[in-house]
Known about the structure:
Blueprint: H1 6-12, E1 15-19, E2 24-26, E3 34-40, E4 43-48, E5 54-60, E6 65-66, E7 81-84, E8 88-94, H2 95-104, H3 106-130, H4 135-150, E9 154-156, H5 160-167, H6 171-183, E10 187-189, E11 193-196
Antiparallel strand pairs: 1-8, 2-7, 3-6, 3-8, 4-5, 4-7, 9-11, 10-11
Amino acid sequence: MDLYKIEDIKNAFSIKCCYPKGAVIYYENDLCDRIGYVISGRLELLHFTIDGEERTLATLNKNSIFGDFLINSTNPYYPGHLTCLTDSKIAFLDKTGLNILIKENAEFRNYYLSQLSEKALKLNFHNKILLQASLRDKILMFLSQETLEHNTKSIKIISKQALANYFNVARPSLSRELSNMKKLGLIDYDRYYIHVKVII
Length: 200
């Protein structure tokens, strides 16, 4: 993190809280009146469809910021439940403090804007994946991007359920398509990785 030191962020965010695995930090439609910084742990933003199916809107890791898209928007309400996948420690900064930092601290402003830009790019790419005609096309586009970004053909996955949520499909459908792709020699996979076998 070159633009802004992690310790500077921890010092700037005044309220620090610890949450156990499974805790809900925000519920869907809760007001976003502060942004959060993940000191440690892993979070997930979940939405439930009308049919009760779970969908992952975002996954947040250590050093991630959340609420930044919402806090200054005209609709500052969480679009899903923000839950802890692991024990987590979060630092918070209210809207007044955030706007002061953006105005007065150039390093923080640059860091904050870079975070927003990265998230916008990831959201745009996710939308492109969801627009693909078939599940196989979605998987191939995802693997192609991950291969380029991480310079490896062994792509780490959280779980098949998380990946199914990302593609907005049922887990059995994803498992069936991965199996078909494996039979064709396109990929191999295990519990933690998908291994790309051909040039995508």
